[in-house]
Inverse folding.
């Protein structure tokens, strides 16, 4: 995938289809949307999706997008959040011009409508307790029972409503309810709550009110008051749409906005509920709302993520009607893609190991001119990198006793210093207590030109690899915050408690790092690529003794990919089992290969470790585990697919049977996708998003370079509808429409299940996952 694809023209989606039709039919002449945050927390990446959508539509259709604070709940709202939300929307790159509104400004108007509803006999004051109201409402299978107060006269209701408003009653004594339909299949329509009593301070209206409107009442009225045409919200509100329309009709508003639902953003390894994020802040699990590990816009900003990459991400994921979990790799991709073109390269040594270059006399400093960007980025700029007798390299780039597959510095070995000459390790002094290397003495052989971008970063003949380094005397001290995912589970919301899913190692704050001097005057917020390490930003807070502090935005690539590169040599000795399918394999019997695998494993503790992990932790059967651990490349590919959320046994099957069969001798690195994408595909088949035949079609397209599985599924409309929240309303609808069948089924005619499944399938246009439909029907029919 390329950057242009990620940030290119916005794709058509079902909301645009609706708007196009409305403009064409003359229903509307102008598009007005709104973004309606409740000021009870900071905005997060999920809100970014809604912001990009609403402001994006308004911009594209030449309309307006209102920023409206949905502040009808006095207990949780605060002006701190109002300010933060405005700051974050601006930062993201959107502007509401003079269209800034507060639902609390409409309290008078809401109330006038309420009096009229009562006078017209469309609402009543109920004096049941919350508990009693719940009981009277009935269930999905039984109708509601009228409240004894439902028949109060309009005059009595009006009197009670006015006294509610004037504070004569305590919290909970009465509520205002619409007169709906107690038999409606949609529970929201069974006499909806419109107002409740709350003696509380509101951050804007203070003590003026002690009754507050419910969301379902305030929201449609706010939209109508502002002349919103398309009121876009997330799928959880699908059932509320009927009520939304009821309120507008009952209040006889002039404007009739249309509510449209889309799938909210759910992102792997992330929680997106403000309540849960607030808890992390209050319990000090993180360093405030803008902690760089938080999925808030403020956190992402401090992390060093650019608004452009968040917008590109929102374009990339698109807008759909079915809920799904978005692979966090998509966000990572957008962030890297943007920073690659933006962040100048510098060298930083995070865990320094002192190296004395005997061939350079003390006091001598040589400077190399190094490009700020590689040729493929095509941006100008250079910086000067000084080399002196004493340098630092990263401790990870040296092994006293090198493991197989390690291609950097070791005793007697030669590596290239990026942009400079080569060094050979002649002597190691070690800490006698810990055995850790303290200092290396190396010879230095000049000969620049290699190891820079011009040579593709290659080391040169006889040289192990290229490493980064800094001059000891000319470099600057700095601290580096290495951030990792905040949660260990891909769906941290699934468990009982998100706190239990917190990654205990989500922050590694490293002091005593050294960075090249070219960053000296960089302003706060500058972003760099630390070569070979990742993207970093200069933090707004400086560290101990005024040291520079850098936050890692993101590593260059998944660490497993690095293992793959290092394994290239070992893997080169043997062919991966690339043609597992029987008909493709015309070669001599396998025996020799099994032997080669065995031999390789003897030489490589890494491969042995893989085999152990695959048979142990991942519980693969022996044959699959052996095949997958015959090659570090293949093993890494497989592990990436597991890391992307695929069940290990399923991923193993797809890698060995579907993928390897279709490779036709191509190497894994030559594929237009990686293990992560395959893992995503496997997961989508496993969770029923896609049938397995559909999965194979998608794989064929992926092999042809068609891009991310989700995009292919969307483009080819291969998605099965599996989400409960989407199927459930259809199931309810079918149950309500076929009372006879339901009664007979319950009486033991279970064969009728097939008929009901068929009806739901029909209602879904054939898109529902039949297994999910059956499950839901069974559960509901008891
Ligand atoms: P929470 O449940 O965490 O409190 P919310 O949806 O109640 O979130 P609001 O402040 O009401 O938060 O959200 C403002 C707008 O942002 C709403 O229109 C909502 O639909 C949208 N939104 C919230 N979360 C997401 C998400 N994860 N993906 C897309 N849109 C979202
Ligand atoms: Mg909300």
């Amino acid at each position: 995938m390329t950057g242009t694809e990620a940030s290119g023209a916005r794709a058509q989606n079902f909301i645009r289809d609706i708007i196009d039709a409305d403009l064409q039919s003359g229903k509307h002449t102008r598009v007005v949307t709104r973004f309606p945050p409740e000021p009870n927390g900071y905005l997060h990446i999920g809100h970014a999706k809604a912001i990009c959508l609403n402001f994006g539509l308004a911009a594209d259709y030449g309309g307006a997008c209102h920023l409206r604070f949905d502040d009808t709940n006095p207990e949780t709202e605060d002006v701190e959040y109002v300010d933060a939300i405005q700051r974050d929307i601006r930062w993201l790159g959107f502007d509401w011009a003079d269209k800034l509104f507060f639902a609390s400004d409409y309290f008078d108007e809401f109330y006038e409508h309420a009096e009229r509803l009562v006078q017209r006999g469309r609402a009543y004051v109920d004096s049941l307790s919350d508990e009693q109201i719940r009981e009277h409402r009935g269930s999905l299978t039984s109708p509601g029972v009228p409240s004894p107060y439902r028949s109060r006269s309009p005059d009595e209701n009006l009197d009670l409503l006015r006294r509610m408003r004037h504070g004569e009653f305590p919290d909970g004594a009465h509520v205002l309810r619409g007169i709906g339909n107690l038999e409606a299949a949609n529970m929201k329509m069974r006499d909806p709550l419109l107002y409740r009593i709350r003696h509380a301070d509101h951050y804007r209206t203070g003590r003026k009110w002690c009754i507050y409107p419910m969301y379902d009442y305030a929201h449609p009225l706010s939209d109508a008051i502002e002349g919103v045409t398309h009121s876009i919200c997330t799928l959880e509100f699908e059932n509320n749409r009927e009520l939304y329309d009821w309120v507008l009709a009952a209040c006889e508003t002039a404007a009739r906005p249309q509510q449209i639902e889309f799938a909210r953003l759910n992102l792997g390894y992330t929680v997106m509920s403000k309540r849960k994020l607030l808890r992390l802040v209050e319990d000090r699990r993180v360093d405030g709302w803008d902690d760089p590990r938080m999925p808030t816009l403020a956190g992402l900003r401090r992390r060093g993520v650019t608004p452009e990459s968040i917008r590109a991400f929102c374009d990339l994921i698109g807008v759909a009607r079915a809920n799904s979990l978005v692979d966090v790799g998509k966000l990572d991709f957008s962030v890297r893609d943007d920073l690659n073109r933006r962040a100048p390269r510098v060298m930083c040594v995070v865990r320094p190991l002192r190296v004395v270059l005997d061939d350079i006399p003390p006091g001598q400093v040589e400077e190399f001119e190094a490009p700020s960007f590689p040729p493929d980025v095509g941006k100008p700029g250079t910086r000067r990198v000084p080399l002196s007798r004493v340098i630092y390299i990263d401790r990870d780039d040296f092994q006293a006793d090198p493991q197989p597959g390690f291609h950097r510095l070791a005793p007697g070995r030669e590596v290239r210093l990026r942009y400079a000459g080569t060094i050979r390790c002649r002597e190691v002094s070690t800490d006698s207590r810990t055995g850790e290397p303290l200092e290396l003495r190396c010879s230095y052989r000049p000969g620049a030109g290699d190891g820079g971008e011009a040579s593709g970063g290659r080391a040169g003949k006889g040289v192990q690899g290229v490493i980064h380094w800094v001059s000891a005397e000319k470099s600057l001290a700095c601290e580096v915050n290495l951030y990792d995912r905040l949660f260990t589970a891909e769906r941290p919301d699934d468990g009982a408690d998100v706190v239990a899913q917190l990654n205990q190692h989500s922050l590694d704050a490293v002091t005593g790092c050294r960075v090249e001097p070219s960053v000296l005057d960089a302003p706060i917020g500058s972003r760099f690529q630390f070569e070979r390490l990742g993207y970093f930003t200069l933090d707004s807070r400086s560290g101990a003794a005024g040291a520079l502090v850098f936050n890692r935005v993101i590593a260059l690539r998944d660490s497993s990919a690095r293992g793959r590169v290092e394994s290239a040599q070992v893997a080169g000795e043997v062919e991966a089992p690339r043609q597992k399918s029987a008909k493709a394999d015309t070669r001599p019997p396998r025996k020799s290969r099994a032997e080669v695998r065995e031999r390789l494993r003897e030489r490589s503790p890494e491969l042995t470790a893989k085999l152990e992990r695959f048979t142990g932790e991942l519980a693969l059967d022996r044959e699959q585990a052996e095949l997958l651990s015959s090659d570090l490349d293949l093993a890494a590919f497989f592990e990436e697919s597991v890391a992307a959320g695929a069940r290990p046994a399923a991923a193993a099957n797809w890698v060995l049977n579907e993928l390897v069969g279709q490779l036709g001798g191509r190497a894994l690195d030559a594929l237009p996708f990686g293990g992560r994408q395959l893992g995503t595909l496997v997961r989508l088949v496993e969770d029923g998003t896609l049938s397995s035949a559909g999965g194979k079609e998608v794989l064929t397209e992926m092999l042809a370079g068609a891009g991310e599985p989700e995009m292919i599924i969307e483009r080819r409309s291969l998605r099965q509808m599996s989400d409960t929240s989407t199927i459930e309303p259809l199931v309810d609808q079918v149950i309500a429409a076929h009372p006879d069948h339901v009664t007979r089924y319950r009486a033991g005619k279970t064969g009728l299940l097939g008929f009901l499944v068929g009806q739901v399938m029909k209602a879904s246009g054939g898109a529902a996952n039949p297994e999910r439909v059956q499950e839901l029907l069974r559960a509901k029919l008891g």
Observations:
- The pocket of adenosine-5'-triphosphate (ligand 1) is lined by residues 36-38, 46-47, 49-50, 70, 233-234, 264-265, 272-274 (CB under 6 Å).
- Residues 684 and 690 are 6 Å apart (CA to CA).
- Residues 1-9, 449-457, 558-591 have pLDDT under 50 and may be disordered.
- The chain has 27 helices and 27 strands.
